[in-house]
Amino acid sequence: MDATAENSVTRYIVRQYGHKLNERTNVHRLVLKLERVAGQRSMEETQMVPKPSQLDDWALYEKLEGDKIRMIDGEATYLEWKLTREREKIAREDWKRARLFRATVPSQLL
User: Fold this and answer.
1) What does the pLDDT look like over 11-44, one tens digit per residue?
2) Would residue 43 be called left, alpha or beta, if left means φ above 0 and alpha means ψ between -120 and 50 degrees?
3) DSSP-derived 3-state class of residue 95
4) What is the C-alpha to C-alpha distance for residues 106 and 41, in angstroms, rounded to an integer?
5) DSSP string, 64-79
6) How far apart are CA 61 and CA 59, in angstroms?
7) What digits encode the pLDDT tens for the residues 54-88?
8) N or C: which end of the chain has fewer CB within 10 A?
9) Are 5 and 103 in contact (CB under 8 A)?
10) Can you name the residues that pair with 27 across neighbouring β-strands?
11) What residue ranges in the chain does DSSP mark as E strands?
């Protein structure tokens, strides 16, 4: 099956899509083949953002922010801040997974 999908961020061509249930193990197998579109960034280039140094800077910033909250507002406020950050991280990861899934499956299959 050939399909083309386009949105404001990504453009790609789905060359093959299929899934099959292994009745013995009750596991679904998904096969998805994408084709690069002219002008699209390479996977190597995409994987370079954020750079390791940017991740290190962000981790240091969050540590300093947490230390400041702990020192000024106390341990209870710090723990609430930390919990809120973890919830946001989980929600962001769930959103990314759902977005990637929707982007790889032709709209008529959703």
Assistant:
1) 667 787 888 888 888 888 888 888 878 888 777 7
2) alpha
3) helix
4) 21
5) HHHHHHHHHH-HHHHH
6) 5
7) 989 999 999 999 999 999 999 999 999 999 999 99
8) C
9) yes
10) 22
11) 3-6, 11-22, 27-35
